[in-house]
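Severity: low
Component: inverse-folding endpoint
Summary: output formatting inconsistent between runs
Steps to reproduce: submit the following structure tokens with default settings.
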């Protein structure tokens, strides 16, 4: 009788857990259907074209599949601060794969991780385009991208890669210091992109906005101006490498032009001496 009673109790617990699971699953499906209905009503109200509606539906489906409808920021906000830091370090461990951030101390990395925001992009989305303003850094978590430079060379980007890292260099170089050693944003200056970055597949990523990056660099400006960090930034950043290539080309053309002039002058002097 005891064994039968224990078996019935375990069976009742199993039934209860299954019922709770089915209720949660039904509630999640209801939330998804309500979300889709709201999106459809919004698109109809704004009279979007069929092509835009298709892209919005695709983005919503992928966003729901990536997050499962869970708001990670809301969950983290209810946890203790030390636990939040540990979870963010685990989620954003790919940040240290970038050589620039690998040289930084934990307080700077924690400040950067607090500013990272989850973002999803669908296949064909253009993250950056030539002549556009770079306003964010993008860390790829899942998916594939490609970067196409002005010379047409394609560079593949995948999990663990980052694009828009030249924004960090630009934020450090285009700033001034006041008497209180606080960073001042110089108005009227923007960083423009010289390449195009687009998604080859659906991409899940974390983004760091320019305003948040400026805030972090203003708090840790003294450390970020360390020669080792600056050297790593200039070595890793395609923006700095592009500037270096342009300066080398200009210097080489100037030297070549100077050599041609000196060669012509020597030939003319030889001819005059013969006459």
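Observed output (run 2 of 3):
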């Amino acid at each position: 009788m005891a064994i039968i009673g224990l078996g019935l109790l375990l069976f009742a617990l199993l039934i209860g857990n299954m019922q709770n699971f089915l209720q949660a699953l039904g509630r999640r499906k209801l939330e998804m259907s309500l979300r889709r209905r709201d999106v459809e009503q919004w698109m109809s109200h704004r009279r979007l074209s069929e092509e835009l509606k298709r892209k919005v539906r695709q983005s919503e489906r992928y966003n729901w599949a990536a997050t499962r409808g869970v708001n990670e920021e809301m969950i983290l906000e209810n946890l203790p601060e030390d636990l939040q830091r540990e979870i963010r370090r685990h989620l954003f461990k790919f940040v240290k794969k970038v050589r620039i951030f690998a040289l930084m101390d934990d307080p700077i990395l924690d400040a950067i991780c607090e500013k990272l925001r989850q973002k999803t992009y669908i296949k064909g989305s253009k993250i950056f385009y030539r002549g556009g303003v770079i306003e964010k850094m993008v860390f790829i978590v899942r998916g594939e991208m490609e970067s196409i430079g002005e010379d047409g060379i394609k560079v593949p980007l995948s999990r663990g890669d980052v694009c828009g890292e030249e924004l960090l260099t630009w934020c450090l170089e285009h700033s001034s210091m006041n008497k209180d050693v606080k960073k001042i944003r110089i108005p009227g200056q923007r960083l423009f992109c010289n390449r195009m970055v687009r998604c080859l597949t659906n991409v899940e990523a974390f983004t760091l906005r320019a305003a948040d990056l400026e805030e972090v660099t203003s708090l840790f400006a003294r450390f970020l101006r360390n020669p080792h960090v600056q050297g790593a930034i200039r070595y890793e950043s395609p923006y700095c490498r592009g500037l270096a290539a342009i300066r080398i080309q200009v210097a080489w053309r100037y030297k070549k032009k100077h050599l041609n002039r000196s060669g012509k002058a020597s030939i003319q002097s030889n001819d005059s001496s013969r006459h």
